[in-house]
Amino acid sequence: ELMLDKGFGLTEAFERLLNGETLTRRVEEHIALRDVHHHPDALWSFLLFSGYLKPVATWADDWGDTFAALAIPNLEVRLAYRGIFREWLTAGMGTSADLDPLFRALLGGDAGALGEILSRLLLHHVSTFDAAGRHPEKLYQGFILGLLVTLEKTHEVRSNRESGYGRADVLIRPKRAGDPGVVMELKVLDEDETVDHALASALEQIASRRYAAELEAAGASPVRVYGAVFDGKRAWVRGG
């Protein structure tokens, strides 16, 4: 219930854990359940002590605080997390069938429809206050990844994955050669920037850093390239 309430599907941290990576967090050795709602570190510690995470490594800093590199302990727990992820998706966004127009636009190269669908979903499921936080691009990145979780039957969905000469914000790699792949670069609109300039900048970054290289090597066909720009609850998408 805590994970669903906190919108775990929107966190980059949860996506990293599902991808088999570790997460470094401070360990709270004395946890009161009433604190879990208010302190993020307490939630991670609660998952650790209840067996839903394991410590790959632990250490103490100069102040005596304990830190751990956390990971999902086994396949059974990973499947449980995926179930929670799907439940969050269904509760917040609808079933995978409800998202079919999004997938058709994304894999079919319809940038205009993709922007309209994302704007509609943002309007109903993301607060402007959240989007105005310290790292708004992480919110949008997590939002996109959460929407795409049901593509995992046919594609590998990854973020900040090394490809070409840098790291793509979102990389959707087909599991079968000949199926379409997608690379997306996400931008948050600056106050003194136009949407056209931000979209052009995103597409230029994809091209200059060859983010599509991994998809081309995997036999993805076609490779869909998108620049996506966000401002509060609005989204614009342009294909390259």
Description:
With about 240 residues, the chain is α+β, with helices and mostly antiparallel strands. The protein is about 45% helix and about 25% strand. The chain has helices at about 1-5, 10-20, 35, 40-50, 75-95, 100-110, 110-125, 130, 135-145, 195-210, 215; strands at about 25, 55-60, 65-70, 155-165, 165-175, 180-190, 225-230, 235-240. The strands form two sheets. A five-stranded mixed β-sheet has the order 4-5-6-7-8, sandwiched between helices. The radius of gyration is 19 Å and the shape is globular. The protein starts with a helix and ends with a strand.
Q: Averaging pLDDT over every residue, what do you get?
A: 81
Beta-strand content bin = 15-25%
Q: Give Rg in angstroms.
A: 19 Å
User: Portion of residues in helices?
Assistant: 40-55%
| Main β sheet profile | 5 strands, mixed
Q: Treating each run of at least 4 consecutive H or I residues as one helix, how many helices?
A: 11
- Order of H and E elements: HHEHHEEHHHHHEEEHHEE
Number of strands: 8
Unreliable runs = 128-134
Strand order of the largest sheet: 4-5-6-7-8
From the structure above, extract its key features:
240 residues; alpha+beta
